[in-house]
Amino acid sequence: MKLSRSFASSLAAAAVALFMSSAHDAEAAKLEGRSVKIGCLASVTGKGAEWGQTAKISMEIAVEEINAKGGIGGVPVELICYDTQTLEAEALKAVSRLVERDRVLAISGPCFSGEFETIAPQLDGQLKTVINSYCSAKPGLSAMSRWAFRNTLTSDKQLKPVVDAWLKEYKIKKVVIIYDAEDAVSKGEGAGVLPALFKAHGVEVLESLTYRTKDTDYSAQVTKAKSLGAEGIGLGACYQNAAAIAKEMQKQGLNVPVVGGACAGAPGFIEIAGKAAEGAYMSTAAFLDDPRPEVQAYVKKIVAKNNGKQPPYGGPRAYDIIYSYKHCFEASGVTNKPADLASDREKIRGCLAGLKKFPGVAGEITMDENRDGAGSSAILKVVNGKYVNMAK
Amino acid sequence: MLYQQLINGLMLGASYALIAIGYTLIFGVLKLLYFAHGEVFMIGAFAGLYLVLYGGANIYVALLGAMIICALLGVIAVYVSVRPVAKDRPLAPLISTIGLTIILQNLAVYLLGGQQVAFPEAIKQELYHIGPITISSVQIFILGIAISLMVVLWFFIEHTKMGRAIRATAENHETAALLGVDVNRVVLVTFMIGSGIAGVAGVLDGIKNSGISPFMGLSAAVKGLIVMLLGGLGNVPGAMIAGLLLGLIEILSAAYIGTTERDFFSFAILILILLYRPTGLFGARTPEER
After folding, report:
1. Which architecture characterizes domain A36-153+290-365 according to CATH?
2. B12, B125, B211 member nearest A244 (Cβ)
3. Whether B136 contacts chain A with CB within 8 A
4. Spans of chain B below 70 pLDDT
5. What Å distances lie between residue A229 and A178, A254, A343, B128, CA to CA?
6. Are A320 and A386 in contact (CB under 8 A)?
């Protein structure tokens, strides 16, 4: 009796294992070839260094996890990464290299809006391969090509709840906007998104002041903002410049609150600005305070590989892109045969365009009609040298 | 607001002046555009940063340390990229110092990473209100150090034996040598002084702008070059005044005309001055140019 029970249970276990594996096979069609190639564009150096480095590590983590579980459709993933140096021309060169020489199925990245808007118009011509940004936030860019996707939220979606909360807490009536006239997303925020949001709240924009990405001296702008009587400063800036502006404000005794957009809300802002960062509000497209085990497992891995620091939102968004590619490669009948490259790329494009409620560590991915991520995310405020989520 | 902007301009100008002094000193004695000067400035900033962060040094020790490290770097530069290179070919030392520039920058990126890093708050921030202007302890510190350094240097050049030797060498190598000046030693001392001042300028820039990166040397080098031309080649007091002037022009054009046009104005003014006063505002101190 004893024997037969254990025999029965082992039989049952074998049956379950058999069923599981056949179910797995049915879901994940076998791919051909020695490797499944995914291209990656990351701004590992230049003004977007922190964004690019953390995104690259995140994609590598995802690939490692997928390969440890048998790859995509039974074939190991090969991630081919190039550093764009946060320069438009470099990004464009790297895309052609990935599409034409490396012959990847799809590309993750580029990060920056400036890079994205340079590449997107070229896609409908000869490139015809999916690009998918994990940080670009300037509104309207994905509309440039049916191959252009962004697994992230545009600035208007990111900043609306942030500006609401910022104005509610600080009761500001007059602001000065300072923005980077050379950076695509910062200019979009400084000249478009922020003025519109302030107008909707009846807040007066006293003046919009600009600087250039490589500037290091912001004393003239801060003095001017102070003399105009600004009660708050809206920033269209990347984190290094945003931090330098916050410090200059502190130096000149302009102690008014700051609100910043997509590129500013990286941990580097707090690191460089120190105490001058306190009380600032920043927008984001992902915040890793979700207790779900898969989110915390990712946080643990990325923090260990990123000198003990949390990544900006591009990290988790890039991680999710790799998993969404795994899903699309397996679900849309991609063969990975060299002869099918063009049709494989087209199948992937179709699958991504229809992506709805795909679970990711940054939240659910739903592509809207413009191929941008939908929904909203956290509201970041700097409290005691750390970002906290004010949306909760 | 005008007075406040004038202070901003002086702050910016003081750092330009400190960089340009080294340029103009070295140009004076060697007739050499020393390209690596901007990178020496960058290394000074990092030396100061590490002395404060890991050496636990206070800001004065950090300034002195950066000065000594950069002065030594100046000595190395002389032995590596100036002395061994053929002197009868005027372009050769120019190329070798460009090479040194690239080596220093790449080395910094390799060792320190390509990112901007925060400079620690080494001075306690306090604000003083004097009439319509607000000035902070940080600004007073930076201006104070920069101006006293310039005064000491001016005194050294004009009133000491070594200063006289530097001026004589700048006038004419052969004559100076005939009169008993050790020209090789003068060149070495000039590099040490110029590089040491650039090191101090680097630390002050770190304090002023709160963040430093391995790429900060290039734009500093360009600005230093403009100031040297404005002030007159080889003219040390000229470089000091021209530096302050360029800082004021940049800040005032940024404040009253437009921030994106600030470089346009500084370069336009440079071209105008060179058109009407080819020897710079205060006259060159080199015989060929006079």
Report:
1. 3-Layer(aba) Sandwich (3.40)
2. B211
3. yes
4. 86-87, 285-290
5. 14, 10, 59, 19
6. no
Which of A385 and A377 is assigned the larger pLDDT? A385
Query: Which residues on chain A are in Cβ contact (under 8 Å) with B121?
Result: 274-275
Which is the CATH superfamily of the domain at A156-284? Answer: Response regulator (3.40.50.2300)
What residues does A131 pair with on adjacent strands? A148
Closest CA to B16 of B256, B222, B196: B222
Quick check: A243 and B211 CB within 8 A? yes
How many angstroms separate the Cα of A389 from the Cα of each of A256, A284, A317? 21, 10, 18
CA angle A21, A26, A32 (to 5 degrees): 95
Count of helices and strands (H, E) across chain A: 13, 14
> For residue A22, what pLDDT is reported?
41
Q: Is B248 on the interface with A (CB under 8 A)?
A: no
Determine the Cα–Cα distance for residues A258 and A162; give it in Å rounded to an integer: 11
CATH 3.40.50.2300 residue ranges in chain A?
Answer: 36-153+290-365, 156-284
Percent of chain A's residues with pLDDT above 90: 71
What single-letter DSSP state applies at residue A180? E
Residues, chain A, total?
Answer: 392
Residue of B nearest to A182 (CA): B260
